[in-house]
């Protein structure tokens, strides 16, 4: 097919493989993602105490995620760009719906029930917000004018506040970050960046005193001094560090982590699954996992860099960076570098919605690469 | 823009973002290095330290659940206790082939399909050294059988644990309530830490209302485990604090009498001590066996309960709202005396019908041909509707609702039980709020005989009756007398004492006039409750009521017995005894029972007899009569 040999912007011909031209998938990225997901299943099998039933559930979820990836990869970036306003509006509407439901039921609620599936609108927002901001910024000058930046900040603030009020601070921060990454990649001036960081520094005390719940403050305090409360909130951090440290260089071996199996590690199949990895596979295992994550991030950033148009470039870059933020925050939390905020380790932690969201995001990233068009 | 400029712009934008991507990539790499450095610090540099900690990490804290407080009646009869129950458990790691083992066990202990299914479900999520329950409620015989065959099943074990038991069965089931397995809904409102190791929680009645008192506080033990997590020895133990015991105001003997007197009819009865407000008996029929809930209600069992119809789980005594009908007359009469609307001597001519001026619609008396000249006492004793239509109309709705409010109509009594209904005390303000309409005169007339919008729970009627018996002193009904501390055995009053209220009349003699009128309802041969006067050696002040389900005009000429059951009238009764120094006040509602004097009054008389004379002969006569009536009906239908 004539389309299979396209010149890129530099005019050098690249051959698109069958995987790329027909299925719109990226071989390297796909291999790395599947490798992490498969590794995750193995770790969960151990974390569940060799419970095959629960492990099967994770396999089913990973398959659903893969299907989402396949579907998203088929959508050309231009179409996505046109849809982004609608997707974003839908996301906001669902967030408002969840909030209204929460008021009616007098309690925090984050999901909507669609038959047997619990769907969290905040997951949709993790994709919808970067798409929306990228659309706003890509249709005009890059770097954007101040008025555009302010508009983009407003777009970021709306869903962030709605999610923070749920209250789900961890996700709110991640959603905000996904939008801010687009701004950063669009090349906003250093003044904006410095100003933003200063505002954050000044705003943190305000956040501490007025916006945070007691349990959130407690988490931060515990992070600063875990020994202050060894059986309460500090327990997570201490036990997680013991698990990691006792793993040593090569680990205790698969299915042999005593910390994990004696249930000393809290949330060992969800947020603290990395502690199980570190205990059973040691530093070597952690380093390997980290390397694969870096390969994924590197490939994602490369795809963003080689995109021909502003929109897919910004989207692919922002989604890749959001993905890595997950890894970073989760690993930082489990190893005691950051306070406990309750974010999963992407592709490894047990749980459906974030897995599907991440796979869908990589579908979009692959689409940015495999739907490249001759320019101009 | 020229093509060239476009191209330049495109390259500039791309270059700008690429630079930012490069910066971001570098930051990611840097972050990964920091992360790895932390991992190296933990896993290599400090590995020895953490490995030691991990080795020592063999001490776990395990909860010891508290035993639930017991519940007694006022005489010390046990109403709820904890009994050891034996259950069969299986340790998964010693299990060789699930299906095979289950089949072999089936030869010794019977297993239903549902039990097998539930066991398999539990097995999936259980850890392999933790026992999984297979069957509960083993009989002594089954326990012995398992013990004999133990060598054939290394994975099998019999465990004893305490399970709630209600030794009196259905007695006071609604007031007492029941416990059930903790479910997701419960988990949302309780402190999960306080319930670790506890299986059951109060679900209704006293068991739910006093959950905090009955539950107690869990203890803990520090145990050392081996590398597989199996407990090797206990290092430290802090005993749990058992739940406190409750002593109820109920008298199970009287409760039993009241339940038998109501028999198989749907309805409710509340008996309380006017002086203290202590509830002596609280009946709601149909009832249910609370034990059914302990092992979790199965769908079949629940369907069977629902099949009986008439909502057995519903506590009619506090949740059922009924029109008070003629039982409201003494209260309205008292208000009319107080406001000077009527006097004890003045009479009203009853010719069987009452008309509002200028209206054609007749308001009928239950006695078609009328009562003739009736004074205050006769109007109450013979329950003349026309007298009260006229009185209510002249008194006006505002003065009626104003006077009735302190008796507790239209408001929850504040009993400990959850889910109490408040009924409706009709007033202008209520109607505007609830219906959004103004008040009509005709509605005042109906309010005079306790119909129309008027509704009340049996408990509210009993409370108002007690207030009447007390000549104005309002009491707070209560079900729990004292709480007995589980540690030192000291007893404390349960209910927070509310400020004593008193209804003051301008002329206190009106109390006696009204009580006298209520005595005549029993003692006068034409009184509506005269049927229960036979062989009476104490005095009863009473008022009957018959709440029409259909208008008086329809079915007027039918025999009540011939109407379909759902169209038959509710039978009501309120009363207290002895009339001068009341020791007990009773309210009875029999759903679709027919006339209050015939159906509800004898039930109350059985309760009065049992409480005041400890005499059950009236109850037995009542039961015998009811059996004969049923036998007769069967014979005629057969």
Automatic annotation (TrEMBL), chain A:
<keyword id="KW-1133">Transmembrane helix</keyword>
<keyword id="KW-0808">Transferase</keyword>
<keyword id="KW-0573">Peptidoglycan synthesis</keyword>
<dbReference type="InterPro" id="IPR001182">
    <property type="entry name" value="FtsW/RodA"/>
</dbReference>
<feature type="transmembrane region" description="Helical">
    <location>
        <begin position="193"/>
        <end position="211"/>
    </location>
</feature>
<feature type="transmembrane region" description="Helical">
    <location>
        <begin position="171"/>
        <end position="188"/>
    </location>
</feature>
<dbReference type="Pfam" id="PF01098">
    <property type="entry name" value="FTSW_RODA_SPOVE"/>
</dbReference>
<keyword id="KW-0812">Transmembrane</keyword>
<feature type="transmembrane region" description="Helical">
    <location>
        <begin position="149"/>
        <end position="165"/>
    </location>
</feature>
<keyword id="KW-0961">Cell wall biogenesis/degradation</keyword>
<feature type="transmembrane region" description="Helical">
    <location>
        <begin position="59"/>
        <end position="77"/>
    </location>
</feature>
<keyword id="KW-0133">Cell shape</keyword>
<comment type="function">
    <text>Peptidoglycan polymerase that is essential for cell wall elongation.</text>
</comment>
<feature type="transmembrane region" description="Helical">
    <location>
        <begin position="281"/>
        <end position="302"/>
    </location>
</feature>
<dbReference type="InterPro" id="IPR011923">
    <property type="entry name" value="RodA/MrdB"/>
</dbReference>
<feature type="transmembrane region" description="Helical">
    <location>
        <begin position="347"/>
        <end position="368"/>
    </location>
</feature>
<comment type="similarity">
    <text>Belongs to the SEDS family. MrdB/RodA subfamily.</text>
</comment>
<keyword id="KW-0472">Membrane</keyword>
<feature type="transmembrane region" description="Helical">
    <location>
        <begin position="27"/>
        <end position="47"/>
    </location>
</feature>
<feature type="transmembrane region" description="Helical">
    <location>
        <begin position="314"/>
        <end position="341"/>
    </location>
</feature>
<keyword id="KW-0997">Cell inner membrane</keyword>
<keyword id="KW-1003">Cell membrane</keyword>
<protein>
    <recommendedName>
        <fullName>Peptidoglycan glycosyltransferase MrdB</fullName>
        <ecNumber>2.4.99.28</ecNumber>
    </recommendedName>
</protein>
<comment type="pathway">
    <text>Cell wall biogenesis; peptidoglycan biosynthesis.</text>
</comment>
<feature type="transmembrane region" description="Helical">
    <location>
        <begin position="83"/>
        <end position="104"/>
    </location>
</feature>
<keyword id="KW-0328">Glycosyltransferase</keyword>
């Amino acid at each position: 097919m004539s389309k299979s040999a396209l010149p890129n912007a530099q005019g050098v011909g690249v051959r698109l493989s069958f995987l790329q031209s027909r299925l719109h998938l990226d071989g390297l990225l796909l291999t790395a993602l599947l490798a992490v997901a498969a590794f995750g299943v193995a770790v969960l099998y151990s974390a569940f105490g060799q419970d095959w039933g629960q492990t099967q559930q994770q396999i089913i979820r990973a398959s659903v995620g893969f299907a989402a990836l396949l579907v998203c990869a088929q959508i050309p970036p231009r179409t996505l760009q046109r849809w982004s306003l609608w997707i974003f509006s839908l996301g906001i509407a669902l967030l408002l719906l969840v909030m209204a439901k929460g008021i009616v039921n007098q309690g925090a609620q984050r999901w909507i029930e669609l038959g047997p599936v619990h769907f969290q609108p905040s997951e949709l927002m993790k994709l919808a917000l970067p798409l929306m901001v990228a659309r706003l910024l890509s249709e005009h000058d890059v770097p954007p004018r101040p008025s555009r930046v302010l508009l983009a900040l407003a777009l970021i603030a709306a869903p962030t506040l709605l999610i923070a009020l749920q209250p789900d601070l961890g996700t709110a921060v991640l959603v905000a970050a996904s939008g801010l990454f687009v701004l950063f990649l669009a090349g906003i001036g250093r003044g904006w960046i410095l100003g933003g960081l200063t505002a954050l520094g000044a705003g943190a005390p305000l956040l501490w005193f007025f916006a945070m719940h007691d349990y959130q403050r407690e988490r931060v305090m515990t992070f600063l001094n875990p020994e202050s409360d060894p059986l309460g909130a500090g327990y997570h951090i201490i036990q997680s560090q013991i698990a990691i440290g006792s793993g040593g260089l090569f680990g205790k071996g698969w299915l042999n982590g005593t910390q994990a199996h004696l249930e000393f590690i809290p949330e060992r199949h969800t947020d603290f699954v990395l502690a199980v990895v570190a205990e059973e596979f040691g530093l070597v295992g952690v380093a390997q996992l980290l390397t694969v994550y870096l390969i994924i991030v590197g490939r994602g950033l490369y795809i963003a860099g080689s995109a021909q148009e502003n929109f897919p470039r910004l989207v692919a870059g922002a989604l890749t960076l959001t993905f890595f933020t997950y890894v970073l925050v989760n690993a930082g939390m489990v190893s005691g570098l950051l306070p406990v905020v309750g974010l999963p380790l992407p592709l490894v932690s047990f749980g459906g919605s974030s897995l599907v969201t991440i796979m869908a995001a990589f579908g979009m990233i692959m689409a940015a690469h495999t739907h490249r068009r001759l320019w101009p | 823009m020229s093509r060239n400029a476009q191209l330049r712009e495109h390259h500039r934008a791309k270059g700008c973002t690429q630079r930012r991507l490069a910066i971001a990539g570098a930051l990611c790499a840097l972050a990964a290095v920091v992360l790895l450095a932390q991992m190296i610090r933990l896993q290599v540099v400090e590995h020895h330290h953490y490995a030691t900690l991990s080795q020592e990490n063999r001490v776990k804290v395990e909860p010891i659940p508290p035993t639930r407080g017991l519940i007694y009646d006022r005489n010390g009869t046990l109403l709820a206790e904890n009994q050891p129950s034996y259950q069969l458990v299986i340790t998964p790691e010693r299990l060789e082939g699930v299906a095979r083992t289950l089949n072999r066990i089936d030869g010794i202990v019977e297993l239903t399909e549902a039990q097998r299914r539930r066991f398999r479900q539990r097995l999936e999520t259980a850890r392999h050294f933790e026992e999984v329950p297979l069957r509960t409620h083993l009989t002594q015989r089954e326990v012995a059988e398992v013990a004999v065959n133990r060598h054939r099943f290394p994975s099998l074990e019999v465990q004893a644990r305490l399970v709630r038991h209600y030794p009196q069965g259905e007695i006071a089931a609604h007031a007492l309530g029941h416990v059930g397995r903790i479910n997701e809904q419960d988990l949302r409102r309780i402190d999960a830490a306080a319930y670790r190791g506890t299986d059951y929680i109060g679900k209704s009645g006293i068991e739910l209302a006093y959950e905090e008192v009955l539950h107690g506080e869990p203890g803990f033990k520090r145990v050392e485990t081996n590398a597989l997590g199996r407990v090797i020895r206990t290092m430290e133990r802090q005993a749990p604090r058992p739940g406190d015991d409750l002593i109820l105001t109920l008298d199970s003997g009287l409760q039993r009498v009241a339940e038998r007197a109501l028999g198989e009819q749907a309805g409710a009865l509340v008996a309380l001590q006017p002086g203290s407000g202590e509830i002596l008996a609280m009946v709601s029929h149909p009832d249910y066996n609370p034990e059914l809930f302990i092992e979790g209600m199965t769908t079949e069992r629940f369907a069977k309960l629902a099949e009986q119809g008439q909502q057995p789980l519903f506590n009619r005594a506090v949740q059922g709202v009924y029109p008070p009908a003629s039982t409201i007359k003494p209260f309205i009469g008292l208000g009319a005396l107080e406001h000077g609307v009527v006097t004890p001597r003045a009479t009203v001519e009853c010719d069987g019908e009452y008309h509002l001026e200028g209206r054609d619609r007749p308001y009928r008396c239950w006695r078609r041909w009328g009562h003739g000249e009736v004074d205050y006492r006769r109007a109450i004793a013979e329950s003349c509707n026309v007298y009260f239509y006229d009185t209510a109309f002249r008194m006006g709705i505002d003065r009626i609702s104003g006077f009735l409010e302190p008796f507790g109509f239209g408001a929850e009594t504040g009993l400990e039980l959850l889910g109490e209904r408040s009924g409706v005390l009709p007033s202008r303000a209520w109607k505007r709020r609830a219906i959004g309409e103004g008040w009509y005169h005709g509605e005042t007339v109906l309010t005079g005989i306790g119909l129309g919008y008027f509704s009340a729970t049996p408990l509210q009627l009993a409370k108002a009756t007690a207030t009447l018996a007390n000549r104005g002193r309002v009491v707070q009904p209560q079900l729990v007398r004292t709480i007995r501390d589980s540690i030192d055995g000291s007893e404390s009053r349960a209910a927070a004492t509310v400020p004593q209220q008193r209804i003051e009349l301008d002329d206190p003699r009106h109390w006696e006039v009204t009580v006298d009128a209520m005595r005549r309802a029993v003692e006068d041969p034409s009184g509506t409750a005269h049927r229960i006067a036979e062989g009476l050696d104490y005095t009863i002040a009473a008022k009957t009521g018959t709440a029409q389900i259909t208008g008086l005009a329809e079915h007027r000429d039918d025999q009540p017995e011939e109407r379909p059951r759902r169209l038959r009238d509710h039978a009501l009764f309120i009363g207290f005894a002895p009339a001068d120094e009341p020791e007990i006040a009773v309210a009875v509602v029999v759903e679709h029972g027919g006339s209050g004097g015939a159906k509800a009054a004898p039930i109350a008389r059985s309760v009065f007899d049992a409480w005041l004379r400890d005499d059950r002969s009236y109850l037995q006569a009542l039961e015998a009569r009811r059996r004969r009536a049923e036998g007769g009906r069967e014979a005629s239908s057969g």
